[in-house]
Amino acid sequence: MYLLTGIPAFELTNTFIDAEAIWGKEIRTVHEQMCNSDEVEAVIGLAEAFLNRLVKNSKFGLQGIDKVGAAILNQKRPLSIDTLASDSCLSSRQFLRRFVERTGVGPKLFDKVVRFERAFFMKNAHPHLDWLTIALACGYHDYQHLAKDYKYFTNMTPTGFYELDTKAPERTFGVVEVRQELVF
Prior knowledge:
single chain, Arc Repressor Mutant, subunit A, transcription, Transcriptional regulator, AraC family, AraC_XylS_family_regulators, DNA-binding
């Protein structure tokens, strides 16, 4: 969102901002076109066209810091802050400030969320796997490290949350995660 708006992510969190204040009257026109459309595909096409125009006309260029989030998402093991800062050609302090500006959270919390999500989806895609295998495949040191993150994010144990999740409505409708390859 920072690249599209120039507004730091932490300023957009838990606030209400009128879309017209950011994107002008064009957003109202697109919204009206979406409301007058009867087909889902047409609505999606309008949204995609609007977003493509925003990206094409963005005043903010992609910088090294913007590639770090993708690096964290694609890493199997945690990266050090110094390495990430060096890769983005910034000092550690500048890196931390700009990362929070673009994502709304610090890189350590972002990495923690990514690992947790990876473990969550892996267990759903491979229910036969034990938690230790999942923990090691997702970059955790051991099961207790994984359990600590589960407690932090869900206030439950991994097994307790998994059992609760298997009863979720989307599971009843057959929505499941795509199988992920195990990488150690």
